[in-house]
Amino acid sequence: MKWFSSLLVTTLSICCVSVYADEGLNFPHVTTTGYGEISAKPDMATFSVRVVETTLTAEQAKQAVDGVVERFLKSLEDIGISKSNISSSNLYISPQYHYPKSGSSELVGYRASRTVDVVVMDLAKLNQYLDMALKSGINQVDNIQLKVSDQTKYQQKARLAAIQDAKSKADFLAQGFDKKLGDIWLINDDRAPSQPVIMRSMMMDTEQNSNGYQDSNLIIRDQVDVIYKLK
């Protein structure tokens, strides 16, 4: 029986994370990792856009990008977007050089850029805001991130699913070796929540069936490691 218990500990603990190696697990136990995921419809978004201009002088470059940013900010404020949902970066200017095969480098102009970040509380208006950016002179869209306004609620649901998954796996393994689950010895959820994954509808292949970003789903995931004692 003692030999069987030792074999059981060895068999069920193969998947132990190395961090547990020195935790004194000198008793029969089972380690499981539970995974959970929840599907959610995004209802808001954030996006970052940038204007980049290269001109002969630093002053011209500054004036060009400042003008574009001012037009875009005014267009957002004119339709009622709160200033708290808009942020713009400081001006960045760098000299631009030409490097001929022979001879010294030549200054050919200055490159200036500024970035604007916008929080979109109504996802249905995201495309409208992006169009406004482009019409204002913005020439780069750096990032679009779909979100849910109540991220905590969905993250908790994903974590609960991970907990149930860990319990189910541990119980199945214990029964397979004619054992029963005892007390929980360790719970580890010390991980940063994973970024939601965007799943797009297959119907978006045709424009007439597409509602744009509203056809997307977010997959929110979590996981938890649990060590149970065995009886």
From TrEMBL:
Keyword set includes Nucleus: no
Signal found in the keyword field: yes
Keyword terms: Signal
Listed InterPro entries: 26kDa_periplasmic_antigen, SIMPL/DUF541
GO BP annotations listed: DNA damage response
Database matches in Pfam families: SIMPL
Segments passing through the bilayer: none
NCBIfam families per record: PRK11087.1
The protein, known as: Oxidative stress defense protein
